[in-house]
Amino acid sequence: MNTDLPNQPIEIRMSFYVYRPTARTFLADDEKAWTDCLFSAACFTSRELAEQIAQRQLGPGHDAYVLDDGVDD
Fold first, then answer.
1. N or C: which end of the chain has fewer CB within 10 A?
2. 3-class state of residue 48 by DSSP
3. Burial class for 3, CB neighbours closer than 10 Å (0-12, 13-18, 19+)
4. First-last CA distance in the chain
């Protein structure tokens, strides 16, 4: 068994989620349904992508917020 691990930093990236506060739900993994569980929510790699998906699902002027997981805070 090889236990040698490379000395490379682990890159942790921020994740973004689409959240509807009026319904208290997140866009689900399938990007079609909504869920109240963050662990079942769709995760996006950029705020811009999450916003595009929110507009696609809900239309312009939607009531959703794009939330981040705060990893870089």
1. N
2. helix
3. exposed
4. 37
Query: Beta-strand (E) ranges in 21-64?
Result: 25-27, 34-35
Scan for tokens 């959240």, then name that residue.
19
Per residue in 7-36, pLDDT (tens digit) is: 777 667 789 999 999 999 999 999 999 999
Residue with structure tokens 């705060």? 70
Q: Pull the structure tokens for residue 52.
A: 């595009």
Q: From CA 29, how far away is CA 17, in angstroms rounded? A: 10
Structure tokens at 61: 């002027």
Q: Which of 25, 29, 24 is nearest to 40 (CA)?
A: 29
Q: What is the pTM of this model?
A: 0.78
